[in-house]
Each structure stands twice: as C-alpha cells, then as structure tokens.
Amino acid sequence: LTGRQFIDAATASIDEIEAYYSTVASRPLLPDISPGYLRDLLPGQAPAKGEPWPEIQRDIERVVMPGMTHWQHPKFMAFFPASSSYPAILGELWSAALTVPAFNWICSPAVTELETVVLDWLAQILGLPASFLSKGEGGGVIQGSASEAIVTCMVAARERYIKRQLGRQGITEPEEFEDKAYELRSKLVALGSDHTHSSTKKGAIIAGTRFRSVEALRSDAFALKGENLRAKIEELTAQGLHPYYLTVCLGTTNTAAVDDFASIAEVAKDYPDIWIHCDAAYAGSALVLPEYHHISQQMAMVDSFDMSMHKWLLVNFDCSCLFIQKRRDLTDALTITPAYLRNQYTDSGLVTDYRDWQIPMGRRFRALKIWFVLRTWGVEGLQRHIEHSMNIGSLFANLMCSRLDLFEITTPPAFALTVFTVKPLPKRTRALSDDDGTNGADPRRPWPDAPVPSPLQADEGLRHAANQLTEEVYTLIEQRKEFFLTSTV
Ligand code: PLP
Questions:
Q1: What is the pLDDT of residues 169-195, one digit of tens each?
Q2: What's 348's domain CATH number?
Q3: In whole angstroms, what is the distance from residue 72 CA to residue 95 CA?
Q4: Do 249 and 359 reside in the same domain of the chain?
Q5: What is the secondary structure of 335-361 as a DSSP string?
Q6: Is the shortest distance between the CB of 356 and ligand 1 below 6 Å?
Q7: Which structural domain, as residue segments, surrounds residue 401?
Q8: Which of 79, 83, 152, 199 to mutate to test the pocket of ligand 1 (most atoms within 8 A of CB)?
Q9: Among the three residues 76, 104, 127, which one is the final residue of a domain in this structure?
C-alpha cells in the first residue's frame, strides 16, 4: 500500500471502525462458534501473491467478527472493563506510524520526554504524593501490564534487599558477593494477601523466589491487615526465610477490596527492607476523584504504585502506569550498558533512558495515547467518566438489593463493582416475574449502609427495571456460567 492506496484503505477502515462502535450494541455479545472455527475459514498457507486491501478488509466481518467477544458492548459485564476511546485509538495510530522503539532518550527524545510529562500529569491527577514525580527522585513509566509492573518491581526489590543485607555484612568482593547473593536468594519470600492477583505469585516464579500468601479475612471485607502481615513475617523469619517484597491492593480482583494501608504502614516501619508495591490495576482510576485522595496520600508508604489506564481510564490496552518513589531502585537493578547503548547524553546523566526501568529494551510510543486522552477529556471529563461508572454501579447494587431472594451480595459494593452470588435454585423463593418486592427476601441488609429495598419498590419504573435486569443477568448466567463465575470467594 502506498500513497493514495493507504489513504483509501485507512479511510475505509476508520469508517468501518466508527460503524462498528455505533452498532456494537446490536451484535450478539458472545461468539457462537466452536474451538478451531477460524482454521476452516482460511487457506492452509499464506497467500503467494499480495491481495488488494478491500478483500482483506472484507474478512474482518467474515473471519474475525464471528469469533469476537465484544468487550466494548454495553452489556459486557465479565472480568473488568477494557477501556477504549477514539483519542486513544488515534494515539495507537500515530504510535504505529512513527514506530520508534525508543529504549534510550537519544533514540527519539520526544518519546521519552512526553512520557515523563504525561505521567507527572497523571500522578498529580491521581493525587499521589509529590515524591512520585520526576522532578525529585521518583517518576513514572508506562509498562505493558500490571503483571509486568509487578515482576519489574520484584526484581528491583530482590536486588535492593540483597545489596542492603550483604552491604551490612561488609561483603563487597565480587565473587564472594555473588556466592552469598545466590545463597540469600534461595531464602527470599514475596508476600501478598490471598486475594492478591495471581500476577504476584507469577512474578515470584519469574524472579526465582518463594511466594507466601497472608490471609485476608471475610470479616475484614477481604482486606489485608497489618497484624496478619506481621504474624506472617515473624513466622517466616523464624524459619530462616527473608520476606523482601509485598504487594498491597487498592481494589482486589475478586471483590475490589482495599487493604488496610494504615496498619500495614505501621508494620512497614519495622521492616524497611521489604519493598511494598501497591497494585491498583483497576481501582486506581477512581483516584481521579478528589474524594479518594486521602487514599492516594497513604501511598507515601509504598515504594511503587501501579494503575492501568487500560482498564478504566479510557486508554486502550496496553497502558499500565507505574510510579516509583526512588527511580534509582529500578535503575540500579536493571541498568546494563554495553558499548552499543552508550552515548554522550546517557553518560551525562541528564536524560532518562526508559530501558533501565523495564524488562524489554525497546518500547512503543504509548505516551501519545495518554496525552490525547488527557487533552480531549481534560481532568473534569475523566472525573465525570468515573462518576458515571460509579453511579451505574450504585444503581446496579440497588437493583440487586431489591431482589435478595435471587441474589446474595457478597461484599460491600466498591468502585462500581458489585460482587454477588446467585442463590441455589431451592433457595429461590419467588419466580423471576413475581415482583412483589421484599416478600420472601432475606430481611437482613447485605452490607451495613445498604439502601433499604422498600423505597425502590415504591417506584414502578425502577421495580420494572430491577426485574428486567435481574432476569437478564440470571438468563446470561444460566447460559454462560463460565463468563460470570470468574472467581469464588
Ligand atoms: N492486578 C489486578 C488487581 C487485576 O485485577 C489484574 C487483572 O484483572 C491484574 C493485576 C493483571 O492485569 P494485567 O493484565 O495488566 O497484567
């Protein structure tokens, strides 16, 4: 494709993408195919001769769409949201157009410098302590995923821990240091609550250390508490093991639980060598609302904080934003500078080379999509977007509350997420169409400040909506259990 052909192909694609978004609600949400469906639609070999673009584009509808689960469909409710927006799509387009794997500042200064600026903007919008900004010792970097952020920090945590421990023993001779480091590495333990996302355990596997979970109790709404953490650290230490890393959660995957940062901070004071990482992959987006900034300020106690704009903040995958208080902690662990990566700007120490803040060397120009989104919406627009989700979440929770005969609300709804279980059939006391309010329903409130169902029942419109929605949810659950039953608590 060259010149005019590219313009025609791109224009046709953009038209089709817009048409897709404006009609996605009318498509079936889930694919109706069997595994391996796609092989039958394509030849066994790649085409020997090139094909014209219109034929390729036609196959989006013929080959791809039948196998799509439409995450942008308004009725998609599984897992967590996957953000998408037109400005972010344009950012992806420009990123692909420019294609600069800017591992060093010198590779393309704009790529590095825009990333530093937009992540400083984001840190301020989220209300993070100033120590996470690049003008001090901290800074932000875009990672591909929350999992990548975790494993990157875990490796930095491991190296920092070893260096501190061996430094205290006065071990500096390189060979002795290496031997002792390997010995100590075999005793390192990464920690997280038993509701921490599996990426922490996976990170520990990759980092070559143990992982142990700390119990987060149902009675604490599945939040990790300092006292349980302390007991686990003491237990491990008594066994000769060395806890070196902890993931705390702002919004767990199962229930959007928020760990008890205040009591964890007390424990952290006694164990300053343990790296604390806050995984706010989903719920971190809510910090755009000033009413949550009291949580942001508690982040002063963590070494690193990560939230994924690609979940809830209008930027397409991949865009996980990692902030760190002391960037030297990352670069000390991850910097290797062979001759081919050296240059006068790196040597001067005046520029950022993001290859030293991540696992891969090359990187995409992802800052563009953040920049476009922040400028298109503005901070107020982002706040309205999150508020809107929260309002829908509250409405949903209230509707669920009005049918406690069918559903049991597991934990207090948080960050627009309502976690519920479907009551087993024998326990269902009423038919779905029977809308006689709370009769037969569990008389207890599902969480302390839950709305009393009766005002809802008084409103005909809402009662109708509640019944329609619960019926729809129930039908979907019965059809496709695996899409909903993503976790059991
Ligand atoms: N952490 C939390 C709390 C999550 O909910 C998820 C995914 O849902 C992840 C980490 C992993 O995200 P990613 O796919 O960006 O690695």
A1: 999 899 999 999 999 999 999 999 999
A2: 3.40.640.10
A3: 22
A4: yes
A5: ----GGG--HHHHHT-S--GGGGSSSS
A6: no
A7: 378-484
A8: 199
A9: 76
